[in-house]
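Summary for the steering committee. The consortium agreed at its last meeting that each partner would contribute one worked example illustrating the joint modelling workflow. Our contribution is presented below. We chose a case with several input lines so that the handling of multiple components could be demonstrated. No manual editing was applied between input and output; the record is shown as generated.
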Amino acid sequence: MLVEALALSAVLFSIGVVGVLTRRNAIILFMCVELMLNAVNLSFVALSTLYGAAGQVFVVFTMTVAAAEAAVGLAIIIAIFRHVKTVNLQNINLLKG
Amino acid sequence: MNPAMIPEGAHPLASTIARFVWLLPLLPLLGFLINGTLAMLGVAKVGPADPSAGHGHAEEHGHGAAHGHDDHGHATRHKFAPIVSLVGPGVLVATFLLASGIFFAMRGVEMEHPYIQTLFAWMPVGDLQLNATLLLDPLSMVMIMVITGVGMLIHVFSVGYMQDDPGYPRYFAYLNLFVFFMLMLVLGGSYPLLFVGWEGVGLCSYLLIGFWFSDKANADAGKKAFIVNRIGDFGFLVAMFLMFANLGTLDVQGVAAKAAELPMGGVIATAIALFLFLGCTGKSAQIPLYVWLPDAMAGPTPVSALIHAATMVTAGVYLVARASGIFSMAPVAQLTVATVGALTAFFAATIGLKQWDIKKVLAYSTVSQLGYMFVGVGVGAYTAGIFHLVTHAFFKALLFLGSGSVIFAMHAAYHATHNHDDAQDMRNMGGLKKHMPVTFYLMWIATLAIAGIPLFSGFFSKDEILSSVFARAHHSTLAESSLLGIPGGTLLLVIYGLGLATALMTAIYMTRMMLYTFHGPNRTGAAEEPHLKEAPWVMTGPLVVLGALAAFGGWLNVPALLGAIGPVGGLEHWLEPVVGEATLRTTLGEPAHLSHSVELMLVSTAIIIAVVGIAFAVWRLKPAALVPKKDAPEATGFDRVLENKYYVDEGYDAAIVQPTVNVSRAVLWKGFDAGIIDGLFVNGSALLARAFGWMGSQLQTGQLGTYAWVLLIGVITLLGAFTFR
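What follows is the complete predicted structure of the assembly.
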C-alpha cells in the first residue's frame, strides 16, 4: 500500500513540475504548484504509517499555508492582470537583466 | 671609528666660545622663521611683485631693483619692512660676530684635530650609525668667515637694493635660509649632512632665482638651475653609496682615513672622486653643467653676488678640498678635475668677451674663475684653490654688488622717465663715472684684482694656482699618471697654457665691461641722464668694505717670493692640518718647490699678461663708438657665435631637452600614461567588470520558466550529489 501511495505521489509531483516548467499561463502554473504541494502531502500521509502521526499533522500545516499562499498568489496574479492585461508569463518579464 | 678622532670634551676648543658652534646655523634659521612668518602675514595685503608690470617687455633680464612700482603708482614698501630690515641683516651680524669669536679662539689653540660636536643620533640604521655632527676645522672656519662676512655685507646691501619690493620679507627669509643651509654644508661632519646643506642651498638658489616668479622667464631660469643641479646631485649620491659600500663609513674623517688605505689610483677611489666631481660640476657650474649659472642672473643682483658668485657655487671647490683624502688617492680623477676646470675657465672667458648684459659678463666670469679654482684643487693645490675661492668671493661679490648699484641707478633713471629700455645692457650705460664715483672706483679695484694686477688680491691667488700647476707638471703623482692616453705632465702644461690664456681674456673682458659701463659718453638717454645717481650709503657701505678686502685679501697668503711685504703662506699654514697630508701625497712627499728664477719668470709672465690684457682692451675698444642697444646692429661672424654663447643652450635643447620632451610626450604620456595606465589599467579594469556584469545579466531573462529550469537543475544536481556521493 505504501509503495503505491508513494508512487502516486511521485507521479503527481512530476506532473506538477512538468506543468510549472512548460505552461505559460500563470493560473495553470499556480495550479501545478498546488498539485506539487498536494503530492507532497500525500507522501506525508503515506509515510505516517511508518513514522507516526507527525506527518499527518504536517499535512494540516501545509494545507493552511497553501491556503494562505493561494490567497496571496491569486491576489498578485489579479494585480498583475490589471496592470498588463495578461496572465501569460512570457509577457511578464520586467526583471529581465 | 677613526683613530684621529679624540673625545669631544678633550679638544682644546671645547672650553672656548667654539662650543657654541651649533648656534652658527641656528641664528640664520631663526631669522628665516621670523622673516618667513612676516612674509606670510603680509601676503594678504601685498601679493608677489610683478616684475613685468609697467615694463611691457618680456626679456629674461632687465629687471633690476625697485620692482614694486608700477609706472604711475608710488613705492609699495612692505608694512613689515622695518622689522625685516632689523632681523634679516641682524642675524647675519650676530652670526658673523660669533664666527669671529670662534675664529680667534681657533687661532689661540693648536688645531691638530678638528673639533667635532655631535648634536643627536640622526640615522641609526643597522650598519649605518649616522650622527648629526658638526665638524669645525680650519677649512670650515675659512668658509664660515667668507659666508658670514660676505653674507653680512650682502644682507646690508640688500636692505637698500630691495627696499621697495613687495616681497621684501620673503626675500630676507630665503636669504637667511640660504645662509643656514650653507653653514650646514660647510659644518657637516658627514657626507650626508653635507649633502643636506648641498641640497638646501640648491633649493634657496631656486627660490631666489625665481624670486620674481610672475615673469615666466625667471621661473624657467629657476627650474633650469634646479634640474641641471639634480644631474650633479645624482653623482654626489652615487659617490656616497660607493663610500658606504666600499669604505663602510660616511663620516668625513672616517672616509679620509679609510681612503688612505686604498691602493693608489685604484678603481674605488677614482670612481668615488669622479662621482663627487660630477656633483661639483653641477653645483659649481663646470662643463658640461655650467649652463644654469648665466640664466641664474634672473634673480635679484645681491642674490647673484651671494649665491651665484661668492658662496654656493664655490661649494664644489670646498667639497673637493674636503674630500682631498679621496682625490689625492686618484690622480686620474684629479687630472679630470683640473682639465675640466681649465676648459671651463677658457670656454667661459671667451663667451664673456662678447656679452652685453653686465650681469652676464660677470656670470661667465664667475664660471671661468670657478674653473680656475678647480684647476687649483684638481692639481692638489688645495690651499691655492681655497685661497682663490676666498679672494674671488671678495672681488666678485664687489663686482656683482657694484653692478647691482649700477642697475639700481639705471632702473631708477628709466623709471623716472617711464622708459622701458634695458637697464642691464652695457650699450645703454656709459659715462657713469661722473654719476656714481664710489661705485666706479670700487669696481675698478675689483677689476684689477680679478685681472691679476700685482698686490691686488686676485693676483696672489691666481698666481699661486698657476705656479702650482707648473710645479706639479714636473714632480707629482699627476705627472706620473695619464688621462685618456695623454701623459699628466703634458696635460698640466696645457692646463697652464689655458690658464694663462684665460687670464688674458679675463683682463680684456673685465676692462671692456668697465670701459663700456663707466667711461666714454653716456648712452642712457638725454632725459634719463639727470636721474642717474649714486646709490644710498646702505649700499655703498658694504661696497667699500668689500673693496678693501678685494684690494688687500691677498695678504692672507703671500708667496715666498714677495716675503718682503708680509707674512708668508698664512692660509697655507692655517689649512695645513686639513689638506696638508693630501697635498704632500700628490707632490710625492715633499713640498712643491720651484726654483727662485722659475717662480720669478712665472710671476712676471702673469703680470705681463694681465697688463697686456687691460692695455689691449683700452687700445682696441672705443666706448665712444658704441650705440644704445636699440640702435645696435646685429653681430656677425664669430662675434655672433660668442654673443650667442656658442649656441650651447640651443645644442642642449636640441640634443637633450627636445628628445626628452618628445620621448616624454610620445612614450611616457601618450604611450605609457594614456595607453597603459589610463587605457589598460583604468579603462581595462572597468571593461573587465563590465564584461562580467554583462554575462551575469544574461542569466536574468525575466522568464519565470528559465528560473524554474535552473532551480530544477540545481535541485537535481544537489540531490544527485548527495545520493551518489
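The mean pLDDT of chain B is 87. Strands of chain B lie at 115-125, 128-136, 482-483, 486-487.
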